[in-house]
Design goal:
Blueprint (H helix, E strand, L loop, with lengths): L3 E7 L6 E4 L3 E5 L11 E2 L12 E8 L2 E6 L6 E3 L10 E3 L5 E4 L2 E7 L2
Parallel strand pairs: 3-4
Antiparallel strand pairs: 1-2, 1-10, 3-5, 5-6, 6-8, 7-9, 9-10
Length: 111
């Protein structure tokens, strides 16, 4: 069973945690009309709506977590590097910083 979490570092509720318990976790904003219910729902934490409804996803394969941008408007970044290309899976390490819109998240393994 996957055991990791994202913690909001900047933007929205600092310190808020999202547990990544599934093999695939979607990051985005809730949209009942569109039937979008992301596992990491940043709707309350993104007042300027810089996070796309379907922004990114984190996959767990063979114990390795991978981050993938889903063609978001404002991009997905890891450790302030260059913008991830949609569909390219970027391996995540413990302590990595993920930026979606104006929200900064920290990735942690749960021991």
């Amino acid at each position: 069973m996957p055991r990791a979490k994202l913690v909001i570092q900047r933007g929205g509720t600092v310190g808020k945690e999202f547990l990544l318990t599934e093999t695939e976790s979607n990051i985005g904003r809730w949209d009942a009309d569109g039937g979008i219910f992301p596992d990491v729902d940043l709707d309350q934490d993104d007042p300027e709506a810089k996070v796309s409804r379907r922004h990114a996803r984190i996959l767990c394969q063979d114990g390795q977590y991978l981050l993938e941008d889903l063609g978001s408007t404002n991009g997905t970044f890891v450790n302030r590097g260059r913008r991830l290309l949609p569909g390219n899976r970027h391996p995540l390490n413990d302590g990595d910083e993920i930026i979606v819109g104006k929200t900064f998240l920290k990735f942690h393994y749960i021991r």
